[in-house]
């Protein structure tokens, strides 16, 4: 592999404090093909990156996700390393991310931050949020990944072209991880160092708002992969509410001889609707299994023809 076969892709929004050094570090590691996709930074990030020899493209829309999607359209190099511009990841670890791709044991490599992070790199809220999101992802997709939100990744151009990406904000890493699973790509995780953000550059991530968006992305995308999980959650909410009102109705009738007619009807509706959601889930699961079997058969037949 020639080092220009690897495109270092850096999304930036006001990262003047760190971008220059980051580009220098990657160049020192032998990577000269560097693409900065900038969100119209106001602090001179683009100029610094250009002066350091990176190709700088201004994003046409808003958000990290939109920037990444736009950049994937522009890249022609067979390997891509995606890294944040805030200096929290180390250029010298790039080769360990590339290794599984070069050995052809993976299509997509995630740098796992959660095994070796520096003190202060995660706030307590971010750390708990990351663990919860990884657990939720495991339940929804049945795949144990340790750090689906990592911003340091390596993948082949071929694999990223396969992904259908639409998320414009910080949900992009989640969507990439989900799409890799749906497209049956080989995903590997490699432990990396994670450093605290420079005090000079402010975070663009709102842990509560973006955390919620990420959680809901995992949930909504699960509809096509694990419908029982998707409909089961809605069903459970209705059944639990129904049980709650139902228990209240029974207690009132038993202890005070009061009959709540309206609440009894509501209880029945809630439980019936909840059970229906479970049935939807089961049926969708059944349809999906049949669909997967059909796709597998078609693929096998196509292979035999070749
Ligand atoms: N082009 C572009 N880049 C963005 C945008 N928002 C964030 N970024 C960049 O995406 C990278 C990740 O953003 P961060 O704010 O560091 O988010 P984070 O790493 O999840 O959060 P921290 O732990 O606070 O660093 C950084 O390099 C940002 O400059 C955007 O709207 N457009
Ligand atoms: Mg960051």
From TrEMBL:
<dbReference type="InterPro" id="IPR029044">
    <property type="entry name" value="Nucleotide-diphossugar_trans"/>
</dbReference>
<dbReference type="Pfam" id="PF00535">
    <property type="entry name" value="Glycos_transf_2"/>
</dbReference>
<keyword id="KW-0328">Glycosyltransferase</keyword>
<dbReference type="GO" id="GO:0016757">
    <property type="term" value="F:glycosyltransferase activity"/>
</dbReference>
<dbReference type="InterPro" id="IPR001173">
    <property type="entry name" value="Glyco_trans_2-like"/>
</dbReference>
<keyword id="KW-0808">Transferase</keyword>
<feature type="transmembrane region" description="Helical">
    <location>
        <begin position="263"/>
        <end position="288"/>
    </location>
</feature>
<keyword id="KW-0812">Transmembrane</keyword>
<dbReference type="InterPro" id="IPR026456">
    <property type="entry name" value="GCTrfase_AglJ"/>
</dbReference>
<keyword id="KW-1133">Transmembrane helix</keyword>
<feature type="domain" description="Glycosyltransferase 2-like">
    <location>
        <begin position="7"/>
        <end position="155"/>
    </location>
</feature>
<keyword id="KW-0472">Membrane</keyword>
<feature type="transmembrane region" description="Helical">
    <location>
        <begin position="228"/>
        <end position="251"/>
    </location>
</feature>
<protein>
    <submittedName>
        <fullName>Dolichol-phosphate mannosyltransferase</fullName>
    </submittedName>
</protein>
<dbReference type="InterPro" id="IPR050256">
    <property type="entry name" value="Glycosyltransferase_2"/>
</dbReference>
